[in-house]
Write a structure and sequence with these properties.
The protein is an alpha+beta fold. It has helices at 44-51, 68-71, and strands at 2-12, 27-28, 34-36, 56-67. It has one domain (2-77). The chain contains 2 helices and 4 strands. Strands 1-4 form a two-stranded antiparallel sheet. Strands 2-3 form a two-stranded antiparallel sheet. The longest helix has 8 residues, at 44-51. The two termini are 24 Å apart.
Amino acid sequence: KGEKINELVVEKVQPYSTIGTTATEDLFDEFGVLLLGKGQQITNSIKELLEKREVFVWANREDKDCKSEELEGGIWRI
């Protein structure tokens, strides 16, 4: 029987915002430290990081179907 695998990944954010607008999602640095929470106003420093593409978001990706046998021990081999 196949199972869906969900993976939480960090993705770079495209520069999309201007100063004074609010973030549509939580924004993180490359280490996963929260820079700006969803709904907070985008500051000049965050805008600069967005332009340099140094801002990330957590994204939930759904991978293809995998057989249970392929999953067993896969994570533990890291």
